[in-house]
Amino acid sequence: MAAKTADSDVITIKKYANRRLYNTKTSSYVTLDHLAEMIKQDEDFVVVDAKTGEDLTRSVLTQIIAEQEGKGQNLLPIKFLRQIIGFYGDSLGGVLPRYLEESMEAFSQNEGRMREAMQSAFKGFFPVEQFEDMTKQNMAMFENAMKMMTPFASQAPGQSAAQSEPPPEPAASPANPSGNVDDLKAQLDAMQSQLEGLIKDRNS
Fold this sequence. Notes:
single chain; alpha+beta; four-stranded mixed beta sheet; about 10% strand
């Protein structure tokens, strides 16, 4: 986490009666999502009532937390929330804010080491290099399968199957010197006739 922002760098956000938020630094209206992003970028701000000047920072930050929780990433366990609510009006309620602040400060100081530890753990468990190799292999297998399933996939866009290149002629062989398809078919027909004649003579 970056060092605490100097008071002169604190941005003032004005909240109007229609609940719109106005950033006095950028001279533009912002949303709670914008404020959340400012916090992640270590930009410090205070929210004040545009008419009375009352400090509304705490209530707006609470709204940001509620909105973020509603998006599916739940950082605050239900048990923790119940415990927090239970401390309102309790004699220990005045001690809790300081305790939570110091706990989060300690967590933030160890954040860098925790990230490195997690990255090392994941890298050992499932190396990035192996993941890249597996991805390349899967793509190659997919491309080969597509070529086998779509024999006309290599033709130019807009070109029909009839317009694509014809298959190569059969290669010439001793049984078919010319390599012509019609000649080869005629030879096969003749061979079939001879075979039928042999079978007929044998059965007679």
